[in-house]
Amino acid sequence: MGDLPGIVITGASGRMGQMLIRTVLESGKAKLVGAVERAGSPWVGRDVGEAMGGAALGVICTDDPLEAFAKAQAVIDFTAPAATVEFAALAAQARAVHVIGTTGLEAEHLAKIAAAAHHAVIVRAGNMSLGVNLLVKLTQKVAQALDADWDIEIIEAHHNRKVDAPSGTALMLGEAAAEGRGVALADVRDSGRDGITGARQRGDIGFSAIRGGDIVGEHDVLFASPGERIVLRHVATDRAIFARGALKAALWGQDKAPGAYDMLDVLGL
Ligand SMILES: NC(=O)c1ccc[n+]([C@@H]2O[C@H](COP(=O)([O-])OP(=O)(O)OC[C@H]3O[C@@H](n4cnc5c(N)ncnc54)[C@H](O)[C@@H]3O)[C@@H](O)[C@H]2O)c1
Ligand SMILES: O=C(O)C1=N[C@H](C(=O)O)CCC1
């Protein structure tokens, strides 16, 4: 147990935080050495095992990330953009691998994360599951094979607590489709249609977001042309798929040189 990489989970009380704690504990491949929550969270100062309704684990949740990261070989972070930027700098300072699952990151956040990746390993993906990362490759290939007579639309559905749209996964799929077409997504992205929008522009990549109930995450990539349609689909029914991918990334990163990586690197896709 002593030789296993030590992992800190940030956003420990969140939907993904709790799933990640369980995944690390059950893995036999890593040990939980810390848990971080925002200042003011009722979890701060509590044993995380007890906070999750079970036996004590001897890991006390803290709101001091630097103190927690100093003990870690990896930080797994599914929180919020401002927190993730702060954690990227602190994890780099501690030379810990930083696995980022947080979505909704804007250009200003991404620039700061890229700066931190000069000093430490950062693995970031809007979706850490094997299935979605395969779908990314398939989307790129199909888009490459078809011309702009085929309209590309990405339709995603998530639970009613999700705060960002389009989802990180939808943006990964959009990037893959744009890459397949040989265009920049920023030049062809069409999100949030409402009102008299005018007809669809040839070559655009459209995004639609559904929010409801407890949907874990569903993504369709639709290729529509006169007379036929292709739909590539991924359906997540259990958040464990994201947590397993994140732990795999944390372990994979242990012997890598500082830099920015994604799940395609981790999975060798
Ligand atoms: N990449 C993936 O595979 C994947 C999968 C699922 C969710 N996500 C993303 O992960 C993020 C979290 O999702 P969730 O459903 O767990 O949300 P959540 O709201 O349940 O959990 C987020 C947690 O982060 C904590 N947090 C916020 N700011 C913090 C700070 N400064 N310090 C410490 N903790 C802080 C919150 O208190 C909360 O407990 C979202 O961006 C979501 O889109 C990514
Ligand atoms: O529940 C979420 O939030 C999810 N976020 C990721 C995204 O934005 O794509 C992955 C799926 C679940």
Cofactors, ions and other ligands in the entry: nicotinamide-adenine-dinucleotide, ligand LLHOTIJI
Task: Provide the domain count.
Answer: 2
Summarize the helix and strand pattern as letters.
EHEHEHEHEHEHEHHEEEEHEH
Secondary-structure content class:
alpha/beta
What kind of oligomer do you see? single chain
Helix content: 25-40%
CATH class of the largest domain: Alpha Beta
Strand order of the largest sheet: 3-2-1-4-5-6-12
Assign the CATH superfamily of the largest domain.
NAD(P)-binding Rossmann-like Domain
Rg (C-alpha, Å): 19 Å
Binding site for (S)-2,3,4,5-tetrahydrodipicolinate: 159, 168-169
Binding site for NADP(+): 38
Protein name: 4-hydroxy-tetrahydrodipicolinate reductase
Main location: cytoplasm
Q: Can you describe this structure?
A:
With 269 residues, this protein is of the alpha/beta class. 36% of the residues lie in helices and 24% in strands. The longest helix is centred in the middle third of the chain and has 16 residues. The mean pLDDT is 97. The protein binds nicotinamide-adenine-dinucleotide (NAD) and ligand LLHOTIJI. The ligand O=C(O)C1=N[C@H](C(=O)O)CCC1 binds next to helix 7.
Features:
269 residues; alpha/beta; Rossmann fold; Dihydrodipicolinate Reductase, domain 2; binds ligand LLHOTIJI; oxidoreductase; diaminopimelate biosynthesis; cytoplasm
